[in-house]
Amino acid sequence: MDTSWSREEPTTRFFSQFVDRFTRHWLLWTNLFLGSYALLPWLSPLLRALGYETAGRALYLAYRPFCHQRPELSYHLWGYPVAYCHRDTAIYTALFLAGLAFGFARMWLRPLPGWAFVLFALPLAADGFTQLPRAFLPDWPLRVENRWAVALTFGRLPERFYYGDAVGSLNWWLRTVTGVLFAVGLAWAVFPRVEREARLATAYGHRSSSATLSM
């Protein structure tokens, strides 16, 4: 009697069950990850304000590879910067909320076509591209003073709306809105496709298990 299969069967069964459960609950794990990633940057200033400077600073540094973390482009709590910028806040918060919303629409929502996702992403690309010269020209008039917006609106809005990056300014609104649009488009394009593949994989796994048991 060949005992090799008997020794391997429990391990194979364990991994099969693990993959099956992970596949069936992929949205739960995705939302847990996105929620954690969106929330943890806000804990950095909270920890530092409570006196846990080392832990708060370590959390802040952990996000450094993923964000420029420029203080003037980030939210602040109790005088300390959040661990990622305005744009990343909009993107990852919107992704998390989109994941929660998808839980109610997963049975009927069709994936966004690729060309439509490009339309959702273009505003963010345009905003980011026009901001790039500020890395070399801090007084870049196109996006520091936003003279184009002044001309379009005939300067009827308060000066603080056009100038700078403060919360409520035009630059802040553009970063936030384009970030949300990108995140919604990404979730709409990806989540329904992952759901479809997960259902197919689960159905295939069940058929394979049934075939094995019947042998």
Brief synopsis:
By secondary structure, this protein is mainly alpha-helical. It has 9 helices and 2 strands. It has helices at residues 4-24, 26-49, 53-62, 86-105, 114-131, 141-144, 147-153, 159-162, 170-214, and strands spanning 74-77, 80-85.
Apparent shape? flat
Structural class: mainly alpha
Sheet with most strands: 2 strands, antiparallel
The fraction of residues in strands falls at under 5%
Q: What's the total count of β strands?
A: 2
What's the N-to-C terminus distance? 17 Å
Stretches with pLDDT under 50, minimum 5 residues: none
How large is the count of helical segments? 9
Order of helices and strands: HHHEEHHHHHH
Mean pLDDT: 88
**Strand ordering within the main sheet:** 1-2
Cα-based radius of gyration, to the nearest Å: 24 Å
Helix content: over 70%
